[in-house]
Amino acid sequence: MMMMMMMRRISERAATGFSKNLILRSSASRFHGESLDSSVSPVLIPGVHVFHCQDAVGIVAKLSDCIAAKGGNILGYDVFVPENNNVFYSRSEFIFDPVKWPRQQMSEDFQAIAQRYGAMNSVVRVPSIDPKYKIALLLSKQDHCLVEMLHRWQDGKLPVDITCVISNHGRASNTHVMRFLERHGIPYHYVATTKDNKREDEILELVKDTDFLVLARYMQILSGKFLKGYGKDVINIHHGLLPSFKGGYPAKQAFDAGVKLIGATSHFVTEELDAGPIIEQMVESVSHRDNLRSFVQKSEDLEKKCLTKAIKSYCELRVLPYGTNKTVVF
């Protein structure tokens, strides 16, 4: 009888331990790779840190110790060290108690490590504490990327604050887009451009307080002067049919040529047209069964999905510069 009671107690303890371990693993797997939010724990909140420096022994240990020493727990850790290239990239997701590790102290702790290793990039974000990125959207006549971003922003799936929308095309006040913007208090600026006057100084004034810009099918080329004057990142979307089909109506050109694969590319804007570091690319098959309407619809769907994913990755600190014209996307 005594032996049976002892075995039962041992079994109960083992089951309890297994249950706790299962809960912890479940929480970690649910968190890793998903958008960071504050629903993990009523006390512990999530943070993310990215690091880029010359490769050296002990970097992972130092970063891990920094988090663990303040009671934090790492839930996901990605490292990339390119072959034959002495550089180090990492991205960590962790949870912590903001009472034990105040936000300002966290920045100072990671900054100390950055100084020790001469880091080119060291950024930490706590989504539930830090302000959202402020962005401005620039577009021309096509609305599909703008509409997608507005709806995702409204649903809380795009972690940004949209400060304004700027277009070189006017829109009637009774359109769906204009009614949406008015309802949510987002200013719309119609800045008509000509071949000789791109009115870039006016646009710079409108976007001076933003963290980055999004070209949601803005069919104007931004000058090097504008990019230097803005001094922050600009993200663009274009169809993956470039450079094979340049000029007007590239989708129709591709349709007439009978292509079997279409795509979209989101990239950083540089002075060289459509040649900046790539953030995201998507492709989809088309066939002889597609008419021009379905062909264009598939192309536009890819563009808006590709752009919103690129912006989400950027806001979640998944995108780091790699070399002169590449990116690391964790």
Automatic annotation (TrEMBL):
CDD domains: ACT_F4HF-DF, FMT_core_Formyl-FH4-Hydrolase_C. The keyword Cell cycle does not apply. InterPro entries: ACT-like_dom_sf, Formyl-FH4-Hydrolase_C, Formyl_transf_N, Formyl_transf_N_sf, PurU, PurU_ACT. The keyword ATP-binding does not apply. Keywords: Hydrolase, One-carbon metabolism. Pfam families: Formyl_trans_N. Residues 134-311 form the Formyl transferase N-terminal domain. This is Formyl transferase N-terminal domain-containing protein.
